[in-house]
Amino acid sequence: MYEPNVVGDWQEYDEHAGLRVRVHRLEPAEPPRGRDDAADGLTYFCLRVTVENRGRRHLGVHLEDGQIDVRIGQDGESAFLDWRNSQFIEGFDVYPLRRATAVLYAAGTEASLSLVDVQVQLRVEEEWTERRLWSGGIGVHEGPAGTQQGAVRDSLAHQVSVFLRDQAEEGTA
């Protein structure tokens, strides 16, 4: 059974050796260029999507409108995405041991922000990757090693993530 990643976890792409992505820093935040009128009465939040290249060659990466879907609450309603304030990765060459980060501003009803799902479909070298999903929420904070505290801490996805991270650390020593 497929389990989503927890916000803060890295997800590797087998089809592009060394490429990995994570959704992180999900937090309440006001947009830098002011609120959009369409978000009146909604609570703004910000998240980051970081692409890291641990491979041997540079990769052309695209992460633009329509490649990130943000859903909130138990019913998975679409969050309002503020494209004017967001910053995307538009045709950027990510060289080995380098990163590129997209910053996304979104809004939703405050009661729904305790559960946020983010789906990402990256385009690498004009090829589409498989969609990946991260789950988290406002008020659920990442710990120092990308772990989370609170409601998500006891989830199966988090437990698997911690186990795999511990196994990887043992294997690299």
Key traits:
mainly beta, single chain, 173 residues, 10% helix, five-stranded mixed β-sheet, five-stranded antiparallel β-sheet
Characterize the largest beta sheet: strand count, sense, and whether it forms a barrel: 5 strands, mixed
Shape: globular
The protein's oligomeric status is single chain
As laid out across the biggest beta sheet, the strand order is: 1-14-11-6-7
Number of strands: 14
Strand content: 35-45%
Mean pLDDT across all amino acids: 87
- The low-confidence parts are 142-153
What layout of secondary structure does this protein have?
Blueprint: E1 5-6, E2 10-12, E3 19-28, E4 43-53, E5 59-63, E6 68-72, E7 77-78, E8 80-81, E9 89-94, E10 98-108, E11 116-120, E12 123-124, E13 127-128, E14 132-136, H1 156-172
Parallel strand pairs: 1-14
Antiparallel strand pairs: 2-3, 3-4, 4-10, 5-9, 5-12, 6-7, 6-11, 8-10, 11-14, 12-13
Protein name: DUF4352 domain-containing protein
